[in-house]
Design a protein that fits this description.
The protein is an alpha/beta fold. The C terminus is likely disordered. Strand 23 and strand 24 form a beta hairpin. It is globular and about 95 Å long. Helix content is about 50%, strand content about 10%. Strands 1, 2, 3, 10, 11, 12 and 13 form a seven-stranded mixed sheet that branches. A six-stranded mixed sheet has the order 4-5-6-7-9-8, covered by helices on one side. It has a six-stranded mixed sheet with strand order 14-20-16-19-18-17, sandwiched between helices.
Length: about 1000
């Protein structure tokens, strides 16, 4: 991995000399932009070595410094979080020193010892050294969001290999002020003291490669500080960055006993006639590779190769790996395990993507605010057991090893990684001992346990937890819990309450992270223009209803790199193309021939069929060879099984989990190959379809229907089954046939209408077959929600087949989305069956509303209703709370199901269904789906609907509310923002009219505040 450090110092910025300073600064920014375009790198940081401005008393200089320099660097794609600076003597406010010289002068004139200065700077009197940096501090706080920055010293984690420590060497500077009382203070040389206490503490805890940046070179700081830093540099640092002297130098193994690189930067600006420059330092994995110098040429008003700064003709100083590698056996093992999990499709990963977490689920949210998320650091600092829940293939295994690696690198704390797919309860003690022996660590030194592939449904899970509570009760556990979407709503609240392990949810990648991944990948495997590739990547993720995960991004980028102009139509086609790329790009030994990808797919499909039939997902290499070999002989196919196995292993399609124990790395590979087997074997197709086995393996059906998009057999069986389950729920719950949960609701509901709505709910409840506990909740205001209450609610959800209905809705939705070429009547029947299932789900939630709202929260365990923002203030009013719950039902139905069913290709079918639908509840939910997804011509359909419904109805008000949500928070194109705005305004003209009609001419008369504020601080997700 290559990281570049753009390092410059001594800018002395004033902003007042456009003909001199302005010319240099413009040329510098232009040159940086060009260098960034020419260089190959994975990441970039900007390091500024002090003396940002000429006179720190003028705050405007700092503002202009940002506007004319840093803001341009940000526009080049450098994150402001990666711009790091230290103060120099020019960043001290001289006027403050003049005003406080009577007290400040005697203090800095002292001959400090190390202990005395460290005590003072870190004590209550330390502010006396910091107040002169007030303007510099304001600048940093306003423009550079790295929260760890402070005025004494701070650290920054550059990447997995490198850490940076920024040291303030101007703490005891007198800023060049000449005072007759202490004339010696004007010259700072040998009078500058630094905080070595926190620096040493950081060094001792951090095992990464280290960089030290400070403004003043060693000869300028106090002798005691010089001696201390020299010792630290010799033993613990790889790179020292300084400025101040206005002359360039690079020291690398030039002084006996030194093995670090010391880079003294030239000044970036003093006068355009001076020798000016900056440098770019390349970090290659774990060493400094080279330093590229750029030099100002006044004759050309531009920066060129730094010929005067180096001995060569290229302005480059080659460094190489001169640092003796410190052998850290634990770190090396952790790094190896981490690298193994990061490798995909035969390549080592190019970049690590930081992951974020929330206490709230993401599968029911349109947007979220990054400021509300937790980081890996937060998990590390909490020291408490947590369970991270994600859909499958989110990268939990890689995260687990990354977490343990960082834990060791930065804190020297050791953690153990255990895979629950392999570890059994009766062998947990033996497995822990084996791991401890592998890393040569004692039991007492274990500070964390990471359990991968955690599943409470695993019969060993509770026993493992009990064992850990007994033997390691004070050590936090990190349970990594990947779950298929069908089981994402999971009944694990018992374990959380019994063992006090809170669940948190891993966030999908943000758009800026997709951009970083595209940039890095594009540099190694050129695909096309970065923004074009990014848009295509984001569009395909949405079109295929894939999660924004690193694996999915890499998979699509692999496909793009080979066929960017071809568009795969669904996930099946994407994986098929990915397999073709893997096999076609395989480097074949001269004595072997490349196996046919279809032959391989055929053979592996048979093997995956046996895995599913026998429910055995781990295998020995000999078993794989024997089974596939026998099948190929039967089918009269010639295939090199060993070579096939090596290709699968090399490309991480299968992985080795233990000594001669293998398995497919991700479940979707098993399901994909099994689906392809279904296209070749009617017997296996019957096994999956006829016995409803597809409900256990929903991805199999998704890949099967996506294989050629003509699978009427699957569509017809799913139609039959979802109708059967819907009828079962209807009959078991005892739902009235004509029950409309939204009938009594109104846009501005009165107390009288609230009473009528609740009375109607009470009538429907009494007519239903729900348990007495649920029925009584409406009248029992003293009911205290507790574990028995939650069990009653869960009993309804399970015993009345509602859970199974939810699974069937998801499966049927994916079948519809993938089945472009099935019979048109099957499409219509499938959508009818799905919407009928929606309606019955809505009715069940409606009847359960009183029980769900009893504790002031509309939900239980992992099942939550999304109430509006008035919920907190109205939670004491049970009547209003019930109305809120009922009002939130359509919104929640859309958020639950939209990702499974929606495709822009289905827009015409949805529009026909809306036009022909007689049930007002189904019609309204479909309108909500259209509002949230906004396919072509959506605004005309919604406008027609809003024109027809009564403005006083709940349907009108809820549609207007959905439009406002999308306008305020949705990831919406500019054209759709305009359409959404128009519909909102038209809606308000209808509310203001006397004839219940929209009136476009009235829009200009509306108050500006009818439109919600569009939020810009969110990272939005589709």
């Amino acid at each position: 991995m290559k990281t570049i450090l753009l390092y410059f110092s001594d800018i002395h910025f004033t902003g007042r000399k456009p003909e001199n300073e302005g010319v240099v600064i413009k040329a510098f920014c232009d040159d940086v932009k060009q260098q960034l375009a020419n260089l190959q790198y994975n990441d970039v940081y900007v390091l500024i070595g002090g003396d940002l401005v000429q006179a720190a008393d003028d705050m405007n200089c700092y503002h202009t410094f940002y506007a004319q320099i840093l803001n341009k660097l940000v526009s080049y794609g450098i994150s402001s979080e990666k711009i790091i600076c230290v103060p120099g003597n020019h960043d001290c406010q001289r006027q403050w020193i003049i005003d406080h010289k009577e007290t400040y002068g005697p203090i800095v004139n002292q001959n400090f010892t190390e202990d005395r200065f460290n005590n003072m700077i870190n004590g209550q009197s330390g502010d006396v050294f910091l107040e002169k940096f007030a303007n510099y501090k304001s600048f940093v706080e306003q423009y550079l969001p790295n929260a760890k920055q402070n005025l004494i010293g701070f650290s920054v984690e550059i990447n997995e290999e490198w850490s940076l420590y920024c040291l303030n060497s101007a703490l005891t500077s007198f800023a060049g002020y000449g005072w007759s009382e202490y004339p010696q203070l004007k010259n700072d040389e040998r009078r500058l003291n630094v905080d070595t206490r926190n620096l040493n503490d950081w060094v001792q805890k951090n095992s990464k490669r280290k960089i030290l940046m400070m403004h003043h070179p060693l000869p300028f700081i106090a002798e005691w500080a010089d001696n201390e830093l020299t010792q630290l540099l010799r033993t613990d640092f790889d790179l020292l960055l300084t400025g101040h002297t206005h002359r360039q130098n690079i020291l690398c193994n030039q002084v006996k006993g030194e093995n670090y690189v010391w880079c003294q930067a030239p000044q970036l600006y003093t006068d355009k006639t001076d020798k000016l420059g900056y440098c770019i330092i390349e970090l290659e994995d774990d060493h400094v590779a080279r330093v590229i110098y750029r030099e100002w040429f006044s004759s050309r008003n531009s920066f060129k190769k730094g010929l005067d700064f180096t001995d060569g003709e290229e302005g480059v100083v080659e460094i190489g790996n001169t640092k003796q590698i410190v052998k850290d056996a634990i770190r090396l093992k952790l790094e190896e395990r981490f690298r193994d999990t990061m490798a995909v499709y035969g390549d080592e990963s190019l970049i690590w993507i930081d992951r974020y977490f929330s206490m709230n689920r993401f599968d029911r949210a349109f947007t979220f605010n990054k400021k509300d998320l937790y980081t890996e650091d937060d998990i590390m600092e909490t020291g408490k057991s947590l369970k991270i829940v994600t859909p499958a293939q989110y990268g939990l295994t890689s995260f687990g090893w990354h977490f343990l690696l960082r834990l060791w690198k930065e804190k020297k704390e050791f953690g153990l990684f255990l895979d629950c797919r392999i570890v059994k309860a009766n062998k947990i003690e033996k497995e822990i001992k084996r791991q401890l022996d592998t890393f040569d660590v004692s039991k007492e030194n274990v500070k964390w346990f990471v359990f991968d592939n955690w599943d409470l449904n695993n019969k060993d899970a509770k026993q493992i937890l009990s064992y850990m509570q007994e033997e390691y009760k004070d050590i936090p556990l990190l349970l990594l819990c990947p779950m298929l979407e069908k089981s994402f709503v999971n009944n694990e609240n018992i374990s959380q309450q019994e063992f006090s392990i809170a669940p948190i949810f891993m966030a999908p990648m943000q758009l800026c992270q997709l951009r970083n991944m595209v940039a890095v990948y594009n540099k190694k495997h050129r695909i096309g223009e970065e923004e074009v590739v990014l848009k295509r990547l984001n569009d395909d993720i949405q079109n295929f209803n894939m999660h924004r995960t690193p694996l999915n991004c890499i998979s699509l980028l692999e496909v793009f790199s080979n066929s960017f102009d071809e568009n795969p139509v669904n996930r099946t086609a994407m994986i098929e193309r990915l397999l073709r790329i893997i096999f076609e790009n395989e480097e074949v030994p001269s004595y072997k021939s490349l196996p046919d990808v279809k032959d391989c797919e055929f053979a592996i499909g048979y093997y995956c069929e046996q895995m599913i039939r026998n429910e055995q997902y781990y295998f020995r290499s000999k078993h794989f060879y024997d089974q596939v070999s026998d099948f190929c002989k039967l089918q009269k196919i010639t295939l090199d099984i060993n070579y096939l196995f090596s290709i699968l292993l090399k490309n991480q399609i299968i992985c080795q989990y233990d000594n001669d124990l293998y398995g497919f790395r991700f479940a979707f590979w098993v399901y994909y190959f099994a689906a392809m087997r279904m296209t070749k074997s009617q017997d296996f197709t019957n096994f999956i379809l006829d016995k409803e086995n597809y409900a256990r393996y929903p991805e199999v059906l998704e890949f099967y229907t996506g294989s050629d998009r003509t699978r009427n057999d699957a569509a017809e069986i799913v139609i039959k089954d979802i109708k059967k389950v819907t009828t079962t729920v209807h009959d078991k719950v005892g739902l009235p046939d004509k029950m409309n949960p939204l009938q009594q609701l109104r846009l501005n509901i009165t107390d009288e209408q609230v009473t009528k709505a609740i009375e109607k709910l009470d009538t429907h409840l009494k007519q239903s077959k729900l348990p007495t506990n649920i029925k009584d909740a409406l009248d029992d205001s003293r009911y205290n929600p507790s574990m028995p209450f939650h069990q009653d609610v869960r009993k309804v959800w399970e015993n009345y087949s509602v859970n199974y209905l939810q699974e069937m809705i998801g499966i049927a939705s994916k079948v519809l989305r993938n089945s472009d070429y099935i019979l048109p009547e099957n499409k219509v029947k499938l959508l009818d069956a799905i919407t009928d299932a929606w309606l019955n789900t809505i009715r069940v939630v409606y009847l359960m509303a009183p029980a769900l709202a009893m504790d002031g929260k509309a939900g239980y365990d992992d099942f939550r209703l999304h109430l509006d923002d008035t919920f907190d203030t109205q939670s004491g009013d049970k009547r209003q709370l019930l109305i809120d719950i009922m009002s939130a039902i359509p919104h929640n139905i859309v958020t639950w199901y939209k990702d499974n069913i929606y495709s822009s290709k289905l827009a015409g079918l949805l529009y026909e269904k809306i036009e022909s639908e007689s049930n007002p509840v189904i019609k309204h939910v479909l309108i909500n789906l259209v509002v949230y997804e906004q396919p072509e011509h959506w605004d005309g359909v919604v406008r027609k609907y809003m024109e027809k419904v009564d403005k006083r109805s709940f349907y009108f008000g809820d549609t207007l509310s959905s439009l406002r949500i999308m306008y305020a928070k949705g990831a919406v194109s500019d054209s759709n923002i305009a359409k959404t705005k128009t519909l909102i305004l038209l809606g308000y003209t209808k509310l203001a009219s006397n004839d219940n009609k929209m009136n476009p001419s009235m829009i200009r008369k509306l108050a500006p505040d009818v439109l919600p504020q569009r939020r810009s601080d969110n990272e939005e997700y589709d």
